[in-house]
Amino acid sequence: MNVVALHAGADVALSKLSCSSVNLVTEHGIDGDRHAGATRRHRARFRPTVEVPNLRQVHLIQSELFAELAAKGFAVAPGEMGENVTTSGIDLLALPTGTRLRLGDAAVIELTGLRTPCFKLDRWQPGLKLATIERGARNQILLKAGVMAIVAAGGAVRAGDAIAVALPPEPHARLKPV
């Protein structure tokens, strides 16, 4: 389990710039990223008169999703879907809410929920948004566009860093959209 690639961006474009390393700031997010902040910053969910804790400080996608999308005819590379951290070897979508991931030596993030696929995915590649949504065996909707997290402990993270998983106490709660 490791960090494949890192991305950050201050502008509102879907894709983010590739970085060899990023600095995670406790209770804030990734230094220099547009979604960093203690209160909600996501434009589609932003209400200027209400301050709500930002549960979307860091966006992660497992690199294995790119192979699934390629089988459906989409060419997607790390960072192009707006994620900050691209991982390998870990099924992010199967982890419960509250799971803590140590990225590298010091940084710790806590999973808060699923990313709801954004309409911008279709602007970039028509049909991509729907390609990240599936129906499960019991007809439940499966969102595959990654997971969101908050920064529990800051630190530098580099591409290639190991990821350690710490599950929360039971009973576990499934990730839900945030």
Short description:
The chain has 178 residues and is mostly beta strands.
Could you name the CATH class? Mainly Beta
Percent of residues in beta strands: 25-35%
The largest beta-sheet arranges its strands as 2-1-6-5-11-8-7-13
Question: What global shape is seen?
Answer: globular
Secondary-structure element pattern, one letter each: EEEEEHEEEHHEEEEE
Rounded mean pLDDT is 91
Number of DSSP strands?
Answer: 13
What's the CATH H-level superfamily name?
A: PK beta-barrel domain-like
Find the structural class using helix and strand composition: mainly beta
What is the total number of structural domains? Answer: 1
Rg from C-alpha positions?
15 Å
Secondary structure: helix percent: under 10%
CATH topology: M1 Pyruvate Kinase, Domain 3
Q: Which sheet architecture does the biggest sheet show?
A: 8 strands, mixed
Features:
3 helices, 10% helix, mainly beta, eight-stranded mixed β-sheet, 178 residues, M1 Pyruvate Kinase, Domain 3, 33% strand, three-stranded antiparallel β-sheet
